[in-house]
Structure formats: structure tokens, C-alpha cells
Fold this sequence. Notes:
Blueprint (H helix, E strand, L loop, with lengths): L8 E4 L5 E4 L5 E3 L14 H23 L5 E13 L4 E13 L3 H14 L1 H6 L4 E8 L1
Parallel strand pairs: 5-6
Antiparallel strand pairs: 1-2, 2-3, 4-5
Helix pairs in contact: 1-2
Amino acid sequence: MTVYFTSVATAKGGREGSVKSSDGIIDLKLSTPKPNQESTASNPEQLFAAGYSACYDGALNLIAQRQRVKIDSSVTAKVSLLKDESDNGYKIGVVLEVEINGVSQEKAEELTHLAHQFCPYSKATRGNIDVEIITKAI
Length: 138
């Protein structure tokens, strides 16, 4: 396999620590979200949501471009930390809300299906976490 690039980040202190990328672009405090409390720091689920939404939207636009379809899209990733009853631990679940302007609902659903097959995040999570995709042509 050809490596195109490698991103590097280091976390210290777990969910109550910090994370910093090797280039310093990401330099964040981390904290565990608490119900009914506004957070002043990021968390791993938020970072995963940012990465997945960007990656998926990129895959979606590449698929549309290859089909010579002009779209305008946005992807909102909702990443939840869930109680895992099988081992009394935790797992994550994802809902991707995809809005596509410029095509019919049927075509939008086709594009989101193809993007889910192509997106590196989708490939990495396939069979490991539940991912629900909600597609809306606007």
C-alpha cells in the first residue's frame, strides 16, 4: 500500500487531558461531557465527528464529480458515546445527516450509499460501529 501522508497527534491525560498535533494546528484541552453542563473543552467523540463529517463529505463530492453531477452538500456527524451492555464498557454510534442540493432525493440516496462504500472513515468503521445515514435532498 502507498502511504500518501501520516498525521500525528499525541494525547496526555486521557479524557481529562489534552491533545496536540505534531504541527501544533490542533492543541486542545479535553474533558468528559457532563449532562446539563456546558463544556469548555473538546472530547474524542467531537474530534471523531469532525473528522468523519469532513472525510465523508469529501468522498460524497468525489463520487458526484466522477458521475459528472454538480452538487452542494453538507454532512453533520453526530457521534454518541453509548453504554455497551456486552462488556459493561462503552462504544460509539454515528448518525450522518447528509444534505445535498442539486439532485433528486433518489439520486441523493444513491450518492450517499456510494460515498459510504468509498469513504475511508466508513471503511474503517464498517462492522465495528453502527452508522446511520439520513439523506435529504434540498
